[in-house]
Amino acid sequence: MEIPVWQRLLGVLVYLLPWSDAIKFGLVPGGLFIDYPILQLLILPAQPILLLQQIVPFGFGSLLLFFVLFLAVVRNPEVPYFLRFNTLQALLTDIVLVLLSFAFSMLLRPLGGGTLLIGTLASTVLLAVLAIVLFALVECLRGREPDLPGISQAVRMQLY
Fold first, then answer.
1. Going residue by residue through the chain (160 aa), what tens digit of pLDDT does each one get?
2. pTM of the model
3. Which among 30, 76, 89, 113 has the fewest CB atoms less than 10 Å away?
């Protein structure tokens, strides 16, 4: 079955949510965006989502966007499966990023992890999410489901 072009493009766009949450990992001291300012160009695609998250007061922009995508797209059986799959996979990736962000703020910084340790771990997370987003972009544009180990299996269990 051929996936229409509009579904492929929307499938790519949902991965901007985890990318927008991964950007803060590049902005820590010793992070990639600090050490290599030219890489800040990678922030540009996520600017609309970052702006939307800042508009909503008290930092609830991400949470609001999460619930809108979850309830309006993932749980709506009238939305094509390809979009539901990619949206849920992006949301699960985003949940992992939020948990990693909490781990960074709760465990590493209070323990006095040096700039090198935090910068290295944050850069690793950023590069991993960039690889996921680029892989998902290519697969969505080809009309195939991006198969991310662990996450894709969880998505399929939720959607069937």
1. 799 999 999 999 999 999 999 999 999 888 899 999 999 999 999 999 999 888 988 878 888 999 999 999 999 999 999 999 999 999 999 999 999 999 888 877 666 656 788 888 999 999 999 999 999 999 999 999 999 999 999 999 988 7
2. 0.91
3. 76
Residues near 10 by Cβ (< 8 Å), separated by ≥ 6?
Answer: 83
Which residues fall within 8 angstroms of residue 50, CB to CB, at 6 or more apart?
20, 23, 43
The 3-class SS string of the chain reads CCCCHHHHHHHHHCCHHHHHHHHHHHCCCCCHHHHCHHHHHHHHHHHHHHHHHHHCHHHCHHHHHHHHHHHHHHCCCCCCHHHHHHHHHHHHHHHHHHHHHHHHHHHHCCCCCCHHHHHHHHHHHHHHHHHHHHHHHHHHHHCCCCCCCCHHHHHHHHHC
Q: Which residue has the tokens 């195939």?
A: 144
Q: Which two tokens stand for residue 109?
A: 């910084």
CA atoms within 13 A on the CB side of 35: 13
* Non-local CB neighbours of 45 within 8 Å, separated by 6+ positions: 16, 19
